[in-house]
Design goal:
The complex is a heterotrimer of chains A (about 625), B (about 200) and C (about 260).
Chain A (H helix, E strand, L loop, with lengths): L25 H4 L2 H23 L11 H26 L3 H7 L6 H7 L16 H29 L10 H21 L4 H5 L1 H4 L8 H23 L20 H29 L12 H32 L13 H35 L6 H15 L17 H10 L1 H15 L8 H24 L1 H7 L3 H31 L5 H28 L13 H31 L45
Chain B lengths: L13 H36 L15 H23 L4 H24 L4 E3 L5 E3 L2 H32 L5 H29 L3
Antiparallel strand pairs in B: 1-2
Chain C lengths: L5 H4 L3 H10 L1 H28 L6 H32 L19 H35 L5 E8 L2 E6 L4 E3 L2 E4 L4 E7 L4 E5 L6 E3 L5 E5 L5 E7 L12 E6 L1 H13 L5
Helix pairs in contact in C: 3-4, 4-5
The chains are: A mainly alpha (about 625), B mainly alpha (about 200), C alpha+beta (about 260).
C-alpha cells in the first residue's frame, strides 16, 4: 500500500517545531537489535530442540553412518532458516502482511514512520522503507561481502605463490575457493542494482519512491540474514566444492555445506522480491513525459538485469533444495544408485548460472554508458543499439547454458547447437563496445575517476569477451575446460567489466549518495593499483591455464611456478588498491569536500535534487521533455 | 528547503496502485513458474535417463494419475469460485469463504497423501531412503504443492476477513481481488502442470 | 563563395581519403589500430605455441591451432576497439569543470549495421571452424571404431585406474601405443571427476554409474600427464598420474611386465 499522507510538521528536522511522533507501538519498538535477539532465540531454540529429538546427532557412530549426518543436516538447516524467520519477525517485517490479513492496513502515520520520516541515523538500523536508506544499506552490505571475498582471494593467491607452499591445508584451500566464489557472486549480483538501483534509480525516473517500499526493506533485510549464515560455513568445516556446488560431492559434503545451501535459498528470496520491485517501479512509475525512449540507459540496464534474474534464480534454488533433500531425507536426485544424476544438477545450475553472469554484467556496463556521455560531453551513441545489445544478451543468455557442460558427457550431440547460440551472443555484446567507443569518438574526455573506469572496462571486457569465444568453441574447450584459463576469463568479465563498472558508478554517484566528493587522489592511486595489479594477476593466469594448470587446485607442478608467482604479485597490488579505495570511501563519506548539487554537469534527474535528498525526492513531480543525453554542439 | 516541503507523494490513484500491485505479483509468479519448470525438468530428465534402472525400482508402488489430480483439484475449484466472485461483487463474501474451505480440504488431502507415501525403503543398515528418482521427484512436487496451499490459504483467509471488515478502500480492494485472482489462477495452472507431470510414472 | 561548376570541384576518391587522413583523430586511430592488431597477432602466433604443452595427437594440434588462429582473427577486432579507446584516452583533460561539448552525434545507422554484420561474420567463421573440427574428430572416431583399442578409465577419490580389457590388465599409469586409435570409456566410483590426458588434447568428465566416451589417436612418442579437471574433494590437486606414448613393441613389453606382476599395477 503506497498511499502516504504526510504532516509537514512531522518531517521537518530543520526547524525546531515539535515533531509529533506516532504513538509508541510495536512498530516503533522494533529494529535490527530486536531482530537479532528473536533470530538468535529461534535459531538456538530450534537447534536444541532438534538435537534433543535426534539424541546426540554429533556422535558420529560409524555403525549408524549416514543417519547421523542426515540428522546433523536437518538440525543445521532448520536452525539457519529459523534464524532468518526469527530475525524478520523481530525487526517487524511480518507486521505488514499480518495487518493485511486481519484487514487493518498500516495507517498513514505508521507508513511515514517506516519511511524514516524525521528520524536520524538510527533509521538505517530499522525496517526502513525509504529507498535511499535501502540503497546505503546495500552499499554497506556489498562492501562487506567484497571485503570478505577479497580477503579470501588474498589467501588463495598466497597459498599459490610457490608450489608446495602449504600456506593452508588442502581442505581449507578448497573451502576458500568455494566460499570466495559464492561470496563474490552474491556481491556482484547486487553490486550495482543494490546501491544504485535502489538509491539512484527512482530519482532518475522522477518517482517519489519505489513501487513496493516494504518489499524494498524486505529484500535488504533478507539478504542481511544470509550473511551470518554464509559466514557460519567456516565454523562448520567449510565446503569441499567450488561455488558451483556440483553434486554428488555436495550431497556427501560435511556440515558446512548446509550453510551454503541455506544462503542460496535465502538469497533467492531476496532477489525475487527485489526483481519484482525494481521492474514494477520502472514500468509503472516513470515521470510524466519519460517515454521508453527517454529512460536513462542505466535504468534500462538495471531493469533488464533484474528481470532476467527473476526467472533464472529459482532454478538454482530448486537445485539447492534438491541437494538439501538428498542431504536430509535421503532422496535420490543426485544419487546414481537410486536413479539420480549429477547431470541434473549441472543442468539446473547452469540454466541459472549463465543468465546470472549477464545479470551481473549488464548493470555495470549500463552504469558506464550513463557515465560516458557526461564525461565526454556527447550524447550516448545509438541508444537503440545499447538497448538491442542488452536485450539481445538477456534473451540469448537463456539458450546457452550447456556450454559449461561440453565436457560433461551429458549429451554430446547438443554441444554443436550450444556452440552456435554461445558464439552468437558475441553479436549483441559487440554492440555494447560500439556504443561506448561511438560515444567517445570526437569527444573531449574529462579526467575523472568515473571516466577512467570506462577505459579500464574496454580493455578488460575486450580480453574477457574474446577469451570467451575460445572457450565457447568445443574443440578448444577440450583443452581449456577446467583449467585456470577459464578462471582468468571469467575474472576479466565479472571483475574487470562488472566490478569496474560498479566502481565507476560509485565514483559517479558518490556525491549524490553522501553529499561529498570522493577523494580524487585516493581514487586514482587505487584505480591504477587495482587495474595494473588485476591485469598482471589474470594475464599470468591465462599463462598458467594455457600451460595446463587445472583450476581449483591447492598445489601445482613446478612448471607453473613462474605464472603463479606473477599472478600472486598482481593480487597483492589489487589488495592494496582495494584497501586504499576502502579508506577513500570511508574518509570521503565522513569528511570529504562538500559536493555541489550537480558536480558533473549531468542531465539526468537525480542531479536536480539536493543532498540530503528529501524523503519524497522531488518538491514537484518532474515532467520530462527529452532524453538525458542532450550534450553537444549540433553537427552540420 | 525543508520548510517548503510541500507534500508530494504517491498521490497515485487506487487504480494505479492496484495495477502496480498486480504487476508485482505477476512477476513473482514468473519466479514461481521458473521453480516449477525446474521440478518438471527434473522429473522428465531423470525419468528419461533412468540411471541404474532406478527411476522406479521393481516393487516400489507409485501413485495413480488420478491421485495427483485430486491433490490439485482444490486450486482449480478456488480459482473458478474466485473468478465468479470477481464478476459479481455481492457474491464475494460467499465465494471467498467457499474458496477458503476448498483450499483447506485440499491441503488436508495433500498432507494425508504425503503422510502415507508408499516409497520409503530401508537399506541393509536400517537407514531410511527414498527408493528411486520417481519417489524423490514426487515428494518435491507434493511439497511444493503444499507450499502453494499454505500461501494461498493465507491469501484466501485474508480475503475472507477483509471482506467482513469495512475499513478498506473499495477501489483498491477491487484491484486486490484481481491480484489474488492472478495468484489463484496461477496455482491452478501450476497444479494442472504438476498433476500432468506426475501422471507419467 | 559559390561554385557553379560542381563537376570540377567534387573531390576524387584519392583526395577524399587524403582529406580523411589529414584528420588527427583518424590518424591516431589508425596508428593504434596497427599497434594493437600487431600486438595481439604476435601474441597468438608466438605465445600460444610456447605456452601450450607438447602436441601429441591430431586433436591437440587442432586445439592449439584454434588458440593461435582465433587470436590472430580477433586481433583486428581488439585493434579497432582499443584504437578508439586509446585515441580518446590520450586526449583526456584535467580540470574542475567539464570540457566543452563535443559534436552531438547520437547515432549512425550504417555504422551499427556494418558493425553487426562484421560481428556476425566473425561468429560464423568461429562456428564453422569449430563445427568442422568437431565433425572431423567424430568421423575419425567412427572410421576407426573397429580398430580402436579400448581403455576403461575409472576415477575415484583420488586416483585414476586404467583397465585394458583386451590385454587383461589394470594399472594406475596410462601407457599407449603410438598411432593406435584409443577409445576411453570413462566412469567414476564416487563423485564427478574429469579425465584429462593433457598433451592428447581431449577431456571428458567421469560420472558415477555412467560411461562417457572420448576417442583419440596419439601420434607422437613421449611422456604425457593425466590430470583431473573437476574439483572432487580434498586431494583434487594431487589426482594426477603419468602416461607414456611408446612404440608398439615397448607397449607390449610393458603389458607383459604388468601381467607378470599380477595383472594390476
Amino acid at each position: 500500500m503506497t498511499t502516504l499522507t504526510h504532516n509537514p510538521a512531522a518531517s521537518d528536522p530543520a526547524t525546531s517545531r515539535p515533531v509529533p511522533q506516532p504513538k509508541k507501538s510495536l512498530i516503533t519498538r522494533l529494529h535490527m537489535g530486536t531482530g537479532m535477539v528473536v533470530g538468535i532465540v529461534f535459531c538456538w531454540g530450534t537447534y536444541f530442540v532438534l538435537r534433543h529429538h535426534f539424541s546426540s546427532p554429533y556422535r558420529i557412530n560409524h555403525d549408524e553412518g549416514l543417519t547421523d549426518s542426515h540428522n546433523v543436516n536437518i538440525t543445521l538447516l532448520a536452525s539457519m532458516f529459523m534464524w532468518c524467520l526469527g530475525f524478520l519477525i523481530g525487526i517487524g517485517a511480518l507486521i505488514g502482511p499480518f495487518r493485511w490479513l486481519i484487514g487493518k492496513d498500516l495507517t498513514a502515520e505508521e507508513q511515514l514512520y517506516l519511511a524514516g520520516d524525521g528520524q536520524d541515523w538510527k533509521r538505517y538500523f530499522r525496517y526502513c522503507t525509504d529507498h535511499k536508506v535501502v540503497g546505503i544499506q546495500y552499499l554497506v552490505g556489498v562492501m562487506t561481502l567484497l571485503g570478505a571475498g577479497g580477503t579470501m582471494a588474498m589467501m588463495i593467491r598466497t597459498n599459490l605463490v610457490t608450489p608446495g607452499s602449504h600456506f593452508v591445508a588442502p581442505h581449507v584451500y578448497n573451502s576458500l575457493v568455494g566460499l570466495h566464489g559464492i561470496t563474490m557472486i552474491i556481491a556482484l549480483i547486487i553490486v550495482s542494482t543494490g546501491p544504485f538501483g535502489n538509491f539512484i534509480m527512482p530519482i532518475m525516473i522522477g518517482a517519489a519512491d519505489m513501487a513496493f517500499p516494504r518489499l524494498n526493506a524486505l529484500s535488504w533485510w533478507v539478504l542481511f540474514t544470509a550473511i551470518p549464515v554464509l559466514c557460519s560455513a567456516w565454523f562448520l568445516g567449510g565446503i569441499p566444492t567450488g561455488w558451483t556446488a556440483y553434486a554428488p560431492l555436495s550431497t556427501q559434503a560435511g556440515p558446512g555445506m548446509n550453510a551454503f545451501l541455506a544462503t542460496i535459498i535465502i538469497f533467492a528470496l531476496s532477489t525475487a522480491v527485489a526483481g519484482a520491485n525494481i521492474t514494477t517501479t520502472v514500468v509503472a512509475m516513470r515521470a510524466k513525459g519519460m517515454t521508453w525512449n527517454r529512460v536513462p540507459i542505466f535504468v534500462v540496464g538495471a531493469t533488464i538485469s533484474v528481470a532476467l534474474a527473476v526467472p533464472a534464480f529459482p532454478t538454482f534454488m530448486a537445485a539447492m533444495i534438491q541437494t538439501g533433500l538428498d542431504r536430509t531425507f535421503a532422496t535420490g536426485f543426485y544419487d546414481a544408485n537410486v536413479g539420480g544424476s549429477g547431470w541434473l544438477y549441472a543442468n539446473l545450475f547452469w540454466i541459472m548460472g549463465h543468465p546470472e553472469v549477464y545479470v551481473i554484467l549488464i548493470p555495470g556496463v549500463a552504469a558506464l554508458m550513463e557515465i560516458a556521455p557526461v564525461f565526454v560531453r556527447k550524447p550516448l551513441f545509438s541508444y537503440g543499439a545499447a538497448i538491442a545489445g542488452f536485450a539481445g544478451i538477456a534473451g540469448l543468455s537463456i539458450l546457452v547454458w550447456a556450454h559449461h557442460m561440453y565436457m560433461s558427457g551429458w549429451m554430446p550431440s547438443l554441444n554443436g547447437p550450444f556452440m552456435v547460440t554461445t558464439e552468437f551472443i558475441s553479436i549483441p555484446t559487440g554492440l555494447l563496445f560500439l556504443v561506448l567507443i561511438g560515444t567517445m569518438w570526437r569527444g573531449r574526455p574529462w579526467m575523472k575517476l568515473p571516466m577512467l573506469s570506462v577505459y579500464a572496462f574496454i580493455w578488460d571486457f575486450l580480453i574477457g569477451g574474446i577469451t570467451g569465444i575460445y572457450l565457447s568453441d568445443v574443440p578448444a574447450d577440450n583443452y581449456l575446460h577446467g583449467s585456470m584459463y577459464v578462471t582468468a576469463h571469467f575474472h576479466y568479465t565479472l571483475m574487470g567489466a562488472a566490478l569496474t563498472g560498479a566502481i565507476g558508478g560509485l565514483a559517479f554517484w558518490f556525491p549524490k549518495m553522501t553529499g561529498r566528493m570522493l577523494n580524487e587522489r585516493g581514487g586514482y592511486i587505487s584505480f591504477w593499483l587495482v587495474q595494473i595489479g588485476f591485469n598482471v594477476l589474470f594475464l599470468g593466469m591465462f599463462l598458467s591455464g594455457a600451460e595446463g594448470q587445472p583450476r581449483r587446485v591447492a598445489d601445482y607442478a613446478q612448471i607453473f611456478a613462474h605464472a603463479n608467482l606473477i599472478s600472486t604479485a598482481g593480487a597483492y597490488s589489487v589488495g592494496l588498491g582495494a584497501l586504499i579505495l576502502l579508506w577513500s570511501i570511508i574518509h570521503s563519506a565522513r569528511s570529504g569536500k562538500i559536493a555541489p548539487m550537480n558536480p558533473w554537469g549531468s542531465k539526468t534527474l537525480e542531479w536536480t535534487v539536493p543532498y540530503p535528498v528529501p524523503l519524497v525526492n522531488f518538491d514537484e513531480p518532474p515532467v520530462v521533455t527529452s532524453d538525458p543525453y542532450g550534450y553537444g554542439r549540433s553537427v552540420k | 528547503m525543508a520548510n517548503q516541503i510541500e507534500f508530494y507523494v504517491h498521490h497515485d490513484s487506487p487504480e494505479k496502485v492496484g495495477r502496480r500491485e498486480r504487476l508485482g505479483v505477476r512477476i513473482l509468479i514468473v519466479a514461481d513458474g521458473s521453480f516449477l519448470f525446474a521440478m518438471i525438468f527434473s522429473w522428465f530428465y531423470l525419468r528419461n535417463l533412468n540411471t541404474n534402472n532406478a527411476w522406479l525400482p521393481k516393487g516400489v508402488h507409485s501413485y495413480t494419475a488420478a491421485s495427483g489430480w485430486w491433490a490439485v483439484a482444490a486450486f482449480i475449484v478456488a480459482a473458478i469460485v474466485h473468478r465468479s466472485g470477481l464478476a459479481k461483487a455481492s457474491n464475494r463474501k460467499m465465494t471467498s469463504v467457499i474458496a477458503l474451505l476448498a483450499l483447506t480440504i485440499g491441503m488436508v488431502y495433500q498432507w494425508n497423501q504425503m503422510a502415507h507415501m508408499p516409497f520409503i525403503a530401508q537399506d541393509a543398515a536400517g537407514r531410511n531412503f527414498y527408493n528411486g528418482a520417481y519417489a524423490s521427484n514426487w515428494v518435491l512436487l507434493a511439497g511444493a504443492n503444499m507450499f502453494h496451499y499454505i500461501i494461498t490459504i493465507f491469501i484466501a483467509l485474508g480475503l475472507v476477513i477483509r471482506g467482513y471488515r469495512a475499513s478498506v478502500d473499495p477501489v483498491l480492494e477491487e484491484w486486490r481481488q484481481r491480484t489474488a485472482g492472478s495468484w489463484f489462477t496461477w496455482c491452478a495452472v501450476a497444479g494442472i502442470l504438476a498433476a500432468f507431470t506426475t501422471s507419467f510414472k | 563563395m559559390e561554385h557553379h561548376d560542381d563537376e570540377d570541384l567534387k573531390p576524387t576518391p584519392g583526395e577524399r581519403v587524403k582529406q580523411v587522413l589529414k584528420d588527427r583523430d583518424v590518424r591516431q586511430v589508425l596508428f593504434f589500430f596497427v599497434l594493437f592488431t600487431a600486438l595481439f597477432s604476435i601474441l597468438g602466433l608466438w605465445a600460444y605455441p610456447r605456452w601450450m604443452p607438447n602436441i601429441m595427437s591430431k586433436e591437440m594440434r587442432g586445439d592449439e591451432s584454434i588458440m593461435i588462429w582465433f587470436t590472430v582473427i580477433s586481433a583486428p577486432i581488439a585493434g579497432i576497439v582499443l584504437a578508439f579507446a586509446m585515441e580518446s584516452f590520450i586526449d583526456i583533460q584535467k580540470g574542475d569543470t567539464p570540457p566543452e561539448d563535443g559534436p552531438a552525434i547520437s547515432g549512425h545507422t550504417s555504422t551499427v549495421v556494418i558493425w553487426t554484420a562484421l560481428s556476425f561474420l566473425f561468429c560464423t567463421v568461429a562456428i564453422v571452424w569449430g563445427m568442422t573440427e568437431m565433425n572431423t574428430w567424430s568421423q575419425d572416431a567412427i572410421a576407426k571404431e573397429s580398430s580402436a583399442m579400448v581403455v576403461n578409465v575409472t576415477g575415484a577419490q583420488w586416483n585414476w585406474s586404467f583397465n585394458y580389457p583386451a590385454q587383461g590388465i589394470t594399472t594406475h599409469e596410462l601407457n599407449l601405443p603410438v598411432n593406435q586409435p584409443i577409445t576411453f570409456n570413462v566412469t567414476s566410483d564416487d563423485v564427478n571427476h574429469s579425465f584429462w590426458p593433457v598433451e592428447l588434447g581431449v577431456k571428458v568428465d567421469a560420472n558415477r554409474l555412467a560411461i562417457t566416451v572420448v576417442h583419440v589417436t596419439p601420434d607422437k612418442i613421449g611422456p604425457f600427464e593425466v590430470k583431473c579437471a573437476e574439483l572432487c574433494g580434498i586431494y583434487h590437486a594431487y589426482m594426477e598420474t603419468n602416461g607414456q606414448v611408446e612404440t608398439r613393441a615397448d607397449f607390449d613389453h610393458w603389458v607383459s611386465t604388468v601381467k607378470a606382476q599380477g595383472g594390476a599395477q
